[in-house]
Amino acid sequence: MAEEQEKIPFEEVLDKLLNAEEMLPANLIFRLSDLVKEESEAIAKAWLRISADRRLGLLQDMELITEDNLIVNFDEVSRIALKDPVAENRETALRCLWESEDPAFIPVLLDMLKTEENLRVNAQIIHTLVKYIQLGETGRLLEAKFKAVLETVESIYKSDSPEPLRQKALE
Fold it and tell me: Are 81 and 59 in contact (CB under 8 A)?
């Protein structure tokens, strides 16, 4: 499969993403794993030209793939989708990041938590942050980042935030 991914020109992947009339073959979705900087930038520029339903379908397919395949890495596409105007797409992008242990996402998640208005997206952000707490508890996260995440999640639990958010913080 990896050789097949290399053979698909990235412009073809973008063209297929932008054409909502065609189904996305699995090999094109796999091609979105481990993007190089230029490819990531191209996806970011094209993201909002891809139909909202197509973006959601793509994110859902990526989520399913990552559940069964730990070799793929859709972090770049998921990072782009965190800014999607559609809440369901942001929520799905966060689920796609569940396997990621990249601490670079911590400030992004903390910033999102300050501005996000959708309850389900906020619950998913907290759920994702809890994973970083687990990493910190096992010594796989720098102390400063661990402390920032832990303090944020604890403050949500102790606050008058909606019950679903406080429950997620308790997990």
Answer: yes
3-state DSSP assignment of residue 43? helix
The whole-number pLDDT of residue 5 equals: 45
pTM above 0.85, yes or no: yes
- What is the distance, to the nearest Å, from the Cα of residue 126 to the centroid of all Cα atoms in its chain? 13
C-alpha dist (Å) from residue 137 to 73, 112, 150, 157, 158: 24, 23, 10, 18, 20
- The residue among 38, 82, 41, 42 whose CA lies nearest residue 59 is 82
Q: What is the pLDDT of residues 129-159, one digit of tens each?
A: 999 999 999 999 999 999 999 999 999 999 9
How many whole angstroms separate alpha carbon 51 and alpha carbon 61? Answer: 15
- Report whether pLDDT(3) > 70: no
Share of the chain above pLDDT 90, in %: 87
Report the alpha-carbon distance of residue 157 to residue 171 in Å, rounded. Answer: 10
Q: Which two tokens stand for residue 76?
A: 């770049």
Task: Specify the amino acid at residue 166.
Answer: R
Query: For residue 50, which phi and psi values (nearest 5 degrees)?
Result: -80, 135
